[in-house]
Specification:
The protein is α/β, with parallel strands linked by helices. The protein is built from 9 helices and 5 strands. The chain is about 40% helix and about 10% strand.
């Protein structure tokens, strides 16, 4: 199977850092027979980082990247949905009016930190869901600005730093968590925007397509039976 390449125009440094970790992980996997490179590549060039999620800047970054990479068919856009949810800088209005040459965006719902949290399970994920849901500050319903959620994510995930990720952040285990947590992504879309997609769902679809079975749940061996009581 020939290598499939996706160039990703992304919003900022956090997305770029994630793409670096993701590709490093995929490159470390055993190659299929008779192949010489990983079957799937997510390419995030620095010049394709828009450094903002506003529609105009993203559009310019996409057009520039498309001009420089005419032979690569898949150029995707990865941005946060919060600006579009709130219609900051008329992002929702501009997205609704985008021309046919601009692809449907892949979004983090609502921001990279929410996407980051999908890689966890257990108590940290439960705390984040509580913070964002009806019992907390309702971030998943009405997305907060960064000053409203960053202190909480740094408390729940002490190793988190904006724009940087641990070298081992992406693993089969963390990707299995993303798959299991897809249903936790916020679904509110107050401007009824059409043609919006989830980067997390796109990622999991592509991983499963090129690494079949890799995200299946890992069977936990049954606990050994208790020893019979001593006679």
């Amino acid at each position: 199977m020939p290598c499939t390449r996706h160039i990703i125009v992304c919003e900022g440094e956090s997305e770029h850092a994630y793409l670096q970790r993701l590709q490093s992980f995929l490159d470390s996997q055993p190659l299929p027979p008779d192949t010489f490179e990983a079957p799937l590549r997510f390419i995030g060039p620095m010049h394709a980082v828009a450094k903002t999620g506003s529609f105009g800047k993203i559009k310019s970054a996409y057009n520039r990247t498309r001009t420089d990479n005419r032979k690569i068919p898949s150029i995707q856009v990865w941005a946060d949905f919060d600006l579009y949810h709130r219609n900051d800088y008329h992002c929702a209005d501009n997205y609704a009016a985008k021309t046919a040459g601009i692809p449907d965006f892949l979004f983090s719902f609502h921001n990279f930190e929410d996407f980051f949290a999908l890689h966890f399970d257990g108590a940290p994920l439960a705390e984040w869901l509580k913070f964002g849901g009806p019992g907390g500050l309702r971030h998943f319903i009405t997305p907060l600005h960064s000053e409203g959620y960053l202190p909480e994510i740094k408390r729940i995930f002490p190793g988190y730093g904006k724009g940087s990720l641990p070298a081992d952040f992406v693993s089969w285990e963390s990707l299995r968590n993303v798959k299991a947590n897809l249903g936790h992504q916020p679904a509110t879309n107050p401007h009824n925007l059409q043609g919006i997609r989830s980067f997390a769902e796109f990622l999991i679809h592509e991983i499963e397509r090129f690494y079949p079975g890799s995200l299946n749940p890992v069977a936990v061996p049954p606990a050994p039976a208790p020893a019979p009581p001593a006679a």
